[in-house]
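F.,

This is the one I mentioned.
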């Protein structure tokens, strides 16, 4: 072939190729090539580029990532074939791809995280929690000799506020309030009140009013310091001795305010009956705390992704007796999966579901998955997702991927789930800087 013609053809080919790259770059990505990847130690992965060209690929940390099963830190590959990655140790490595050994094509950052496995739950648990203070759930009028008044409302205290101190005394139990209020009223001195509203601390002065009917000093506030209910255990991490459950925050039933945990515990519970879900009317599990059931763990945190605390051993009735891998959100696929939950007594069972949508989240958000119940047995028993099923672990391809959180009111066979990685972060066993989702570049 004429050398000049060969150069022209090569020039046209390069021009076409770089136009292709330029278009892809303008769109913010190259086909199937992430800018970042996350792997657990010992996990393998592939990079698919679908580019029919030869390239030189190098890794700056061959002790962290192995390329195509070889020990070399640099090799020539065809990008039309998958590039195989093997994670050897925890750390961060950078893969650099160059065309013709000179033209930079792509850099992929790979973050290898220490191996993490947990035991999926599914057990129905009883939840008892006390708030870190006294929650205001309403106002009431005190009938004095002269008029009716709510001293708390006059002092600017609102429904949903958390009273933490009265006259400098830290409040740990609602029973303490009455004694402090009586002393203040008897000496006719206003109370110094410290309270929190949306996480910020405030101070006010409150003068109790004497109720002529009850013959007692009153704040004019309805208050509460505890809550109880049932839910589902999501996972137990045996190496760390911690658990996660529910998949969503516990709120006060009257104010819908998230409860700030002072103390709490989870206990063995047994399902006694189920009210089936119907369109427009979610059902619920009815369960009772076992009288002689042991405490399974404490409650240390109540977050948008559930409750978390310490647990010393895997509870009874587990489907899994050994820990299994967890999946990052980018590994989750639309398709078949299963959930673990209890519909009768204490027996945890597997039920088939379909993952119908996976969100790509760059920060923690509660609605990561949309799932649909497909198992005829579960539909027959519950009508779909019911209250008390929140926290039921979701398993796909042998990995724990998330937890059931909410039901669609008008379609009870469908609902939301959260990604397990956000729960693991709130449990304190997966660091926040390991949570970045992939961003194409």
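My design for it:
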């Amino acid at each position: 072939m004429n050398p000049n013609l060969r150069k022209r053809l090569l020039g046209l080919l390069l021009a076409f190729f770089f136009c292709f790259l330029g278009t892809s770059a303008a769109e913010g990505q190259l086909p199937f090539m992430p800018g970042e990847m996350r792997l657990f130690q010992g996990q393998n992965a592939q990079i698919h580029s679908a580019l029919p060209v030869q390239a030189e690929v190098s890794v700056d940390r061959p002790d962290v990532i192995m390329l195509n099963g070889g020990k070399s830190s640099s090799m020539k590959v065809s990008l039309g074939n998958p590039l195989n990655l093997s994670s050897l140790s925890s750390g961060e490595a950078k893969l650099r791809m160059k065309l013709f050994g000179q033209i930079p094509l792509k850099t992929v950052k790979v973050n290898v995280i220490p191996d993490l496995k947990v035991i999926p739950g599914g057990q129905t648990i009883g939840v008892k929690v006390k708030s870190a203070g006294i929650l205001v759930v309403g106002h009431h009028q005190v009938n004095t000799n002269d008029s009716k008044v709510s001293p708390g409302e006059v002092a600017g205290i609102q429904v949903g506020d958390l009273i933490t101190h009265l006259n400098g005394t830290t409040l740990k139990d609602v029973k303490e309030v009455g004694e402090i209020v009586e002393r203040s009223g008897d000496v006719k001195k206003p109370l110094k009140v410290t309270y929190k509203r949306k996480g910020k601390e405030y101070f006010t002065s409150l003068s109790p009013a004497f109720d002529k009917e009850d013959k007692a000093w009153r704040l004019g506030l309805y208050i509460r310091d505890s809550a109880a209910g049932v839910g589902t255990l999501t996972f137990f991490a045996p190496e760390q001795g911690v658990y996660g459950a529910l998949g969503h925050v516990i709120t006060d039933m009257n104010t819908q305010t998230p409860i700030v945990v002072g103390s709490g515990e989870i206990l063995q519970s047994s399902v006694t009956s189920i009210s089936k879900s119907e369109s427009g009317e979610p059902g619920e599990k009815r369960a009772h705390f076992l009288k002689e059931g042991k405490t399974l763990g404490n409650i240390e945190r109540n977050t948008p992704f559930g409750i978390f605390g310490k647990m010393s051993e895997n509870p009874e009735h587990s489907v899994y007796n050994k820990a299994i891998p967890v999946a990052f959100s980018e590994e989750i696929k639309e398709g078949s999966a299963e959930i673990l939950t209890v519909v009768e007594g204490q027996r945890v069972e597997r039920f088939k579901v379909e993952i119908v949508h996976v969100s790509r989240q760059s920060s923690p958000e509660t609605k990561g998955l949309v799932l649909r119940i497909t198992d005829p047995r579960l539909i027959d028993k519950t009508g779909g997702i019911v209250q008390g099923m929140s926290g039921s672990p979701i398993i796909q391809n042998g990995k724990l991927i998330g937890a059931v959180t909410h039901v669609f009111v008008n379609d009870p066979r469908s609902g939301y789930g959260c990604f397990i990685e956000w729960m693991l972060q709130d449990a304190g066993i997966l660091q926040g800087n390991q949570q970045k989702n992939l961003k194409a570049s």
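Residues 141-219 form a domain with the Pdz3 Domain fold (CATH 2.30.42.10).

Talk soon.
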